[in-house]
Design goal:
Layout (H helix, E strand, L loop, with lengths): L11 H15 L4 E6 L17 E7 L2 E6 L3 E5 L4 E5 L7 E7 L4 E6 L5 E5 L15 H9 L5 H6 L9 H11 L12 H20 L40 E5 L2 E5 L7
Antiparallel strand pairs: 1-6, 2-3, 3-4, 4-8, 5-7, 6-7, 9-10
Helix pairs in contact: 1-5, 2-5, 4-5
The structure holds a DNA duplex.
Length: 265
DNA sequence: TGCCATGTTAATGC
DNA sequence: TGCATTAACATGGC
């Protein structure tokens, strides 16, 4: 069986793609043994996972959860985490799950910002899912906050699932400046942002996410949404709407891309 | 060589 | 309390 790789810089669309792909591969399988190959990948005793059955795989924000007959394996992908089925172990393989049908689920992570933990229930500390919250509730939530749009949208306790790439793309689609004040947005503009986020994420999921760098799948299982980015990584290039040059600034230590003409402050 | 990219958390200050 | 700011973590790529 060929190895299948999924990557990279995982945000909601990538986590959704991983969860869907894994779901068909590991649902119903019982875990035989688990090995943690790096100290920082998990604080849990891998022996506790033996004998548990994987019911299904779900996405929670930009994270992936293996739903077990008892509890969940909470997978934080970090920056470079990847869940692989039947991959050959390499230098960056941090955890290996051997399953009862002889298949193997492994967690590879170059930079080790990812982690695995055994938990009883999905974390309650995160904000609503952007594909579940409705426009009116989103607008109300936005207006109740004082921060600027970009830092707010990156904050997982405000909304779960967006990262640097999709925040920039969503703000561009909505025609909003990354430093605009959330509390001053008119309801119609806030609802427009909600719609832009939902449309963007739906498009990105349809393209199996964005693959910027890192792993390449030998079988072609790579996201293609990076080809449809409009501002992220496009500094100096003409805006697809107006031709103005895309600008890059730094906001909360993150590269931030926008069109100075289409996204007025 | 040294800096960049990134998600998350923590620390500090207002 | 909430918000802004900065640093830390890891490491391949440039």
């Amino acid at each position: 069986m060929a190895a299948t790789y999924w990557s990279t810089l995982p945000e909601l669309p990538e986590a959704e793609t991983i969860a869907r792909s894994l779901r068909s591969a590991v649902s119903g399988r019982t875990i035989v043994t688990v090995a943690f190959l790096a100290k920082r990948v998990s604080q849990d005793d891998p022996a506790r996972l033996a004998g548990r059955t994987i019911r299904t795989v779900v996405r929670h924000g930009k994270q992936v959860m293996l739903e077990l007959d008892r509890g969940f394996v909470h997978v934080k992908l970090g920056m470079t985490g990847a869940l692989l089925v039947n991959a050959v172990a390499g230098a960056y393989t941090r955890a290996v799950f051997d399953l009862d049908d002889g298949s193997r689920l492994s967690f590879d992570d170059i930079r080790q910002f990812g982690s695995l933990s055994l938990i009883d229930a999905p974390p309650a500390t995160l904000g609503p899912d952007p594909l579940e919250i409705d426009a009116v509730a989103f607008a109300a939530r936005l207006r109740a906050r004082r921060g600027k749009l970009k830092p707010l949208l990156l904050n997982q306790s405000f909304l779960r699932g967006l990262g640097n790439i999709y925040v920039d793309e969503a703000l561009f689609r909505a025609g909003l400046h990354p430093l605009a004040a959330a509390e001053r947005l008119k309801p119609a503009r806030a609802e427009g942002l909600h719609a832009a986020i939902a449309e963007l994420l739906t498009d990105a999921i349809a393209h199996r996410g964005s693959s910027i760098s890192d792993y390449v799948d030998a079988a072609g299982e790579r996201g293609s949404f990076q080809n449809l980015h409009r501002v992220y990584g496009k500094e100096g290039q003409p805006c697809v709407n107006c031709g103005e040059h895309i600008r890059r600034i730094v906001v909360v230590q993150r590269g931030t891309h926008f069109c100075p003409h289409c996204q007025r402050r």
